[in-house]
Write a structure and sequence with these properties.
It contains six helices and two strands, in the order H-H-H-E-E-H-H-H. The chain has a two-stranded antiparallel sheet. The longest helix is centred in the C-terminal third of the chain and has 23 residues.
């Protein structure tokens, strides 16, 4: 699975803000840390706020803070906000040349995709924070 830049930014921002839940960070600080466009990051942050994972704090000294449940929110929860996730591992071709090799490969790749998604659903934000320490 190759993740889009928006997805990666969503994961980075969520984890960055979750590691210091009692404080808030500006979009500019986060953009600078990860060397990304503040405009692109702002779009990602809006999606995370709308999903309830972040809270936007307005005014002087405002910014963003993690407001999700680190014990229950998984990596896949964040990924699904940005990626069209499907279980399909391999597209069958509609052609008279469909072979048993293609069908067998489709089964294997679908199983790999299912295992990957199950793994991403099992890794919580809290688990990631422990890994990052």
């Amino acid at each position: 699975m190759k993740l889009q830049q928006s997805t990666l930014l969503g994961l980075y921002a969520t984890l960055e803000l979750a590691k210091s839940q009692d404080s808030q960070r500006s979009a500019a600080d986060i953009a600078e840390k990860f060397d990304v466009s503040i405009n692109h990051l702002a779009k990602v942050l809006r999606i995370l706020v709308k999903a309830g994972l972040l809270q936007a704090v307005r005014g002087a000294g405002g910014g963003y803070r993690f407001s999700g449940n680190a014990k229950r929110t998984t990596l896949m929860d964040v990924i699904e906000l940005f990626e069209p996730v499907s279980i399909e591992g391999f597209e069958h071709r509609d052609s008279p040349h469909h072979t048993d090799v293609e069908a067998g490969l489709a089964v294997a790749l679908t199983e790999i995709s299912e295992m990957m998604q199950a793994t991403l659903r099992s890794i919580t934000i809290r688990t990631m924070l422990k890994i990052m320490e």
